[in-house]
Amino acid sequence: MSIDKIAVVGGGAWGTALAQVAAAGGKDVTLWALEDDVVSAINKIHENPIYLKGCKLSESIRATSNFSELSDADAWIVVTPAQHMRAVLGRAPCPNMPLVLCSKGIEEQSGQLLHNVAADVCSSSPIAVLSGPTFAHEVAKGLPTAVTLACEDDDLCNALRDRLSMPSFRIYTSDDVAGAEVGGAIKNVLAIACGIVAGKELGENARSALIARGFAEMKRFGAAFGAREETLAGLSGLGDLVLTCSSTASRNFSLGKAIGEGKAAADLMKDRTTVAEGAHTAPVLRRLSREKDIDMPIVAAVDDLLAGRCDVDAVLERLLSRPPRPETA
Ligand SMILES: NC(=O)C1=CN([C@@H]2O[C@H](COP(=O)(O)OP(=O)(O)OC[C@H]3O[C@@H](n4cnc5c(N)ncnc54)[C@H](O)[C@@H]3O)[C@@H](O)[C@H]2O)C=CC1
Ligand SMILES: O=C(CO)COP(=O)(O)O
C-alpha cells in the first residue's frame, strides 16, 4: 500500500507538528488550515506563529486553505478540534482514502466518539485513530515520543505505522479504536481537575489520588463504550493521563490551574484561540455517564465547576465526603 502523499487537515499546534513529522520522514505533505494567516506563514516563513510559535518547519510542507489540493493524497491526517470535525470533513470532498483521526474529544451534540462522527460524514473511508502522550511542541522538535495507532484493519494499521513511524516517533498498533479514543477524551477532563488541585495548592498526594481515581472513572466509562482495559492502561489512556495531569504545558491543566486560583471558568473560556478540549468533553461525558448510570464523580465535579454551578470548595467537600467504598468497586 503506497502512503507517500499525506494531507493534514487542521493547522493548529498538533496538525502542524504532525505535518513536520511526516515531512521529516520524507513524505510529500500538504496541510489544510482554516486561517489564511497560518497558510501564508507556513508557505512563506515555514513557521506557524499563531499555533506553534518558535518551531522551524520543513520547507517541503505546503499549506493551503483549498480542499481540492488534498485530493491526490494517499491518507488524510485529521486534526481539527473535536467539535469542528463534522463540519470540516463535511466541507471537504469526502475522500475514499484512509482517515487518521488525531483529535481528542466526544462530539457534544450527538455524544458520539470521533470515529463514528467521521464515519457518518465519510462513509467510504477506512478510519484509524492516533493518540497518546504527545505535546505538539516536543514532537515538532523531534523529541522521543510513543503513540497508539488503532485501526480495525490490520493491514492498513501496519501500513500506516510503517509509513508514519520515525525513530523519535514510535507507533504501537492496536485494533481497539474505541479504546484509543476514550482515553484521549477523558484524560483532558481529568487534567482540568488536576490543574485545579495545583491552582488551589491541594498538594501532590491529592493530584496522584485524582489520577488514580480518575483512571478508575475512565475504565468504568470505557467498559460501557466497548474500550478494552488494556488499551486504557496504555499510551492513549494512562500514558496521556499522566502527561496531561502533570504539566502546565497542557492547556487543560492550565485552564484548571487558573480555576483553582479563583478565576471564573466562563471568563477563561472567552476569547480562547487555542482549544482546551476537556471543557467541551466534560458536559457530554457527564450526560453520557448519567444515561448509562456510570459513576464518575470527578467528571461531574469538573462539569459543575466549568458551568459555574459550584465553587471549588463546595466540589472538594462533595468529593471528600463520599461514602467509603472498596477500591476496585
Ligand atoms: N496540541 C497538542 O499538543 C495536541 C493536541 N491534540 C488534539 O488535536 C486537536 C487539535 O488541537 P490543536 O492542534 O492543539 O489546536 P490549537 O489549539 O493549536 O488550535 C486551534 C485549532 O482550532 C481551529 N479552529 C478554530 N475555530 C475553528 C472552526 N470554526 N472550525 C474549524 N477549526 C477551527 C484552528 O484553525 C486551529 O487549527 C484537539 O482535539 C487536541 O486535543 C492531540 C494531541 C496533542
Ligand atoms: O493531548 C495532549 C497531549 O497528549 C495535549 O494536551 P492539552 O490539550 O491539554 O494541551
Automatic annotation (TrEMBL):
Pathway(s) of this molecule: Membrane lipid metabolism; glycerophospholipid metabolism
Lineage: superkingdom: Bacteria
Alphabetized UniProt keyword annotations: Cytoplasm, Lipid biosynthesis, Lipid metabolism, NAD, NADP, Nucleotide-binding, Oxidoreductase, Phospholipid biosynthesis, Phospholipid metabolism
The keyword DNA-binding is annotated on this UniProt entry: no
Catalytic reactions of this protein: sn-glycerol 3-phosphate + NAD(+) = dihydroxyacetone phosphate + NADH + H(+); sn-glycerol 3-phosphate + NADP(+) = dihydroxyacetone phosphate + NADPH + H(+)
Active site feature: 187
Primary location group: cytoplasm
EC number: 1.1.1.94
Pfam families referenced in this protein's UniProt entry, alphabetically: NAD_Gly3P_dh_C, NAD_Gly3P_dh_N
Glycerol-3-phosphate dehydrogenase NAD-dependent N-terminal domain: residues covered: 5-156
Binding-site positions, sn-glycerol 3-phosphate: 104, 132, 134, 187, 240, 250-252
Annotated residues for binding of NADPH: 14, 51, 104, 136, 251, 275, 277
NCBIfam families assigned: PRK00094.1-2, PRK00094.1-4
Family recorded in the similarity comment: Belongs to the NAD-dependent glycerol-3-phosphate dehydrogenase family.
Functional description taken from the UniProt entry: Catalyzes the reduction of the glycolytic intermediate dihydroxyacetone phosphate (DHAP) to sn-glycerol 3-phosphate (G3P), the key precursor for phospholipid synthesis.
Protein's name according to its UniProt entry: Glycerol-3-phosphate dehydrogenase [NAD(P)+]
Organism: Sphingomicrobium clamense
Upper lineage: Bacteria, Pseudomonadati, Pseudomonadota, Alphaproteobacteria, Sphingomonadales
